[in-house]
Amino acid sequence: MTIARTSPPAKLNLFLEIPARRDDGYHEIDTVMAAIDWRDELEIESIPQPRIELTADWLPSVESVAGELGLDAGAGRVPELLRIPTDDSNLVVRALAAFRASFGVKTGFRVRLGKRIPAGAGMGGASSDAAHAIDCAAQIHQFDNVSEVLHGIASSIGSDVPFFLATADSQSPMAAHATGRGELLSPLKTCPSIHFVVAYPSTSLSTAGVYAQLNVPQQPVSSASFLQAFRRGDRERMGKAMMNRLTEPALKILPQLNELLESLWQCGLQPCQLTGSGSACFGLAKDAEQAKEIVKRLETELQPGVLLRVAQTVPAATPIEIEPS
Ligand SMILES: C[C@@](CO)(OP(=O)(O)O)[C@H](O)COP(=O)(O)OP(=O)(O)OC[C@H]1O[C@@H](n2ccc(N)nc2=O)[C@H](O)[C@@H]1O
Ligand SMILES: Nc1ncnc2c1ncn2[C@@H]1O[C@H](COP(=O)(O)OP(=O)(O)O)[C@@H](O)[C@H]1O
């Protein structure tokens, strides 16, 4: 049976304002998201049985990721923080189930998920896996012109999923301005090459929990200045206009994040902020060299306990490799 392989990227919210609370339990958001080259690995195989099987493992190994985070992964034990659900609470399983139902597909899928993107970090790992899974499934079944149905499935799975579907699908750079609850997308035609240092502090935050702590601003800040600077590739003005309205509510739940932000700032990463609802923080580096040097310095200061990576915006969609049966 056919196999599809791809590498779902994480995202950073470079700008995130929340203009209003809605009556349906969601918030209106005004955000600029960029995909970054911190990626999971996804392999999807079509199988004759009418079910979805999923296995998930950390890359390069659970011991190595646990070691960086200062967690014990001895004797085959997976620390709580690194447990990835393999039942229908995994967004990949939910998305593929919705795919089968929407298209009346009788056969099933076997999924192998290689995780690198921390969960509950505000980096959208699960959403990206889900979006890429349905894109792979459409390619396996050779369904053409189905982007509207896929978009419908994506937004039913989560507000951030359509962004990753757009990045899976398109030839344009992988950044977008998102509004509504996150599902209304205007892809950005240019995306400057930006280097970041991203830091995940070995604690996850629940998106719903952080939104619940938010006080919606009386005078929301518009994304217009940030978007203008982003389109021009003006790093300095971009830096001045970056913001994340969810920082304050996330800090109410996890005040220690302030120390991590302070450490990034002290190394010369300016500005630095949370991505999405956290818990990962990132700072804008001047270039790849500065980002690498700062990661090296922070590794000695902060590890074990914090996952640190240099990340970069990605210029084009990740190809899906199809291996015919
Ligand atoms: C905060 C953001 C910023 O990009 O990212 P993450 O931190 O999750 O990565 C997103 O808005 C998260 O999107 P996503 O993670 O897909 O959220 P969903 O599964 O749709 O919703 C989870 C819960 O978050 C809250 N929620 C989510 C989106 C939104 N626009 N308003 C909300 O209030 C709701 O309480 C909802 O029940
Ligand atoms: N494919 C997946 N990979 C990782 N976590 C997943 C996946 N599917 C569901 N989850 C669950 O989703 C939650 C967070 O999802 P994720 O998208 O990584 O976080 P965030 O919303 O912070 O971007 C975690 O609690 C995790 O258990």
Automatic annotation (TrEMBL):
Boundaries of every GHMP kinase C-terminal domain copy: 227-299
Protein's recorded name: 4-diphosphocytidyl-2-C-methyl-D-erythritol kinase
Origin: domain of life: Bacteria
Reactions performed catalytically: 4-CDP-2-C-methyl-D-erythritol + ATP = 4-CDP-2-C-methyl-D-erythritol 2-phosphate + ADP + H(+)
Pathway(s) annotated for this protein in UniProt: Isoprenoid biosynthesis; isopentenyl diphosphate biosynthesis via DXP pathway; isopentenyl diphosphate from 1-deoxy-D-xylulose 5-phosphate: step 3/6
GO molecular function: 4-(cytidine 5'-diphospho)-2-C-methyl-D-erythritol kinase activity
Domain GHMP kinase N-terminal as annotated: residue spans: 90-165
EC number: 2.7.1.148
Annotated catalytic residues: K11, D160
InterPro entries according to UniProt: GHMP_kinase_C_dom, GHMP_kinase_C_sf, GHMP_kinase_N_dom, IspE, Ribosomal_Su5_D2-typ_SF, Ribsml_uS5_D2-typ_fold_subgr
Residue stretches spanning the membrane: none
Protein's job: Catalyzes the phosphorylation of the position 2 hydroxy group of 4-diphosphocytidyl-2C-methyl-D-erythritol.
Residues annotated as binding ATP: P118, A119, G120, A121, G122, M123, G124, G125, A126, S127, S128
UniProt entry keywords in alphabetical sequence: ATP-binding, Isoprene biosynthesis, Kinase, Nucleotide-binding, Transferase
Species this protein is from: Stieleria magnilauensis
